[in-house]
Design goal:
This protein is an all-alpha fold and about 290 residues long. The chain has one domain: MetI-like fold (Orthogonal Bundle). Helix content is about 75%, strand content about 0%. The chain has twelve helices and no strands. The radius of gyration is 23 Å and the shape is elongated. The N terminus and C terminus are likely disordered.
Amino acid sequence: MTGEGAARHAALPRLVSSMRRRPTIWLGIIILSALTFCALFSPWLGTVDPNAIEVTARMRFPSDNHWFGTDSLGRDLYSRVLYGTRISLLVGLSVAAIATSVGVAIGLIAGMNRLLDMVIMRVVDGLMAIPPILLAIALVALAGANIRNVIAAVTIGETPRVVRLMRSVVLSAREEPYVEGAITSGARTLSILWRHILPNTTSPILVQATYIFASAMIAEAALSFIGAGIPVETPSWGNIMSEARTLWQIRPYIVFIPAAFLSVAVLGVNMIGDGLRDALDPRLVRKL
C-alpha cells in the first residue's frame, strides 16, 4: 500500500477519535435525530389533521386538548408544527444532496479542464452576483409555488458555492506531487479524479453540505413567509409564521413556536457542521 493509500485508510479512525472529543457533533446529531423522529412519526404522536378547522376553538391558549394552542382558524398548532417538520427537513436534505452532487461534478470538470473552466466560472460568477433568496423568489414566481419548485429554486442558488469550493480544492490537489506523478505516468483522467483528487475533497464538501442544509431550511421558511414558497394548505414553519404575524401582539406563541423549531433545527445542523469542520481540520486534530 502506498503512503497516500495508507494515509487515506488511517483518516477514518482519526476522524472517529476526533469526533468523540467534540460533544457539539453529538448534540447536533441528537437534535436532528429528534426532529427526524417527529417528522417521520408525526401521525402517531398525538396529532390530528393539521388542516382541520374548528371555528369554536379559535386562538386557544395551550391546553391538554391543544398542546401548543390553536391558530386563527382553530387548527391545532401542535399538529401543524410537527407536520411542518417534514417540509423543512425534506427541503434541507434535498437541496443539500442535489446542490452538493451537482456542484461536485461541475467543480471537478472546471478544475480539470481549463477551457470549460472559463465558461463555467463566468456562469457561476453571474449566479453568485444575485442574492440566493432573490433568485429563489424570481424562479418560484415563474414556475409556481410548490415544494418541487422551491427545492429547485433554492438548489440553483446554492450550487454555485459548491462549484467554486470544489474547483479551488481540485486546483490545489492538482499541484500535489502524487497527482503530477499520476499525470506523468499517463493515468487516465477519470482514474486520477477517482483515486487521487476526489478523496481529498470529502472533508470540505461534507462541511459545506451541512451549511447548505441549514441555509435551505431558512430559505424555505423565508419563501413561505412571504407567500412565495410552500402553498398555504401544506403546513410548514414558514407559512405558519406568515399566517400568524398579524396576531403577534395578542398570541405571540403562534409565531414563536414554529420559529423556535426552525432555530433549533438550524442550530443542530450547524453544530454538526462546525464539529465536522474542527474534526476534519488536521491542525486541530494534531493538537488533541
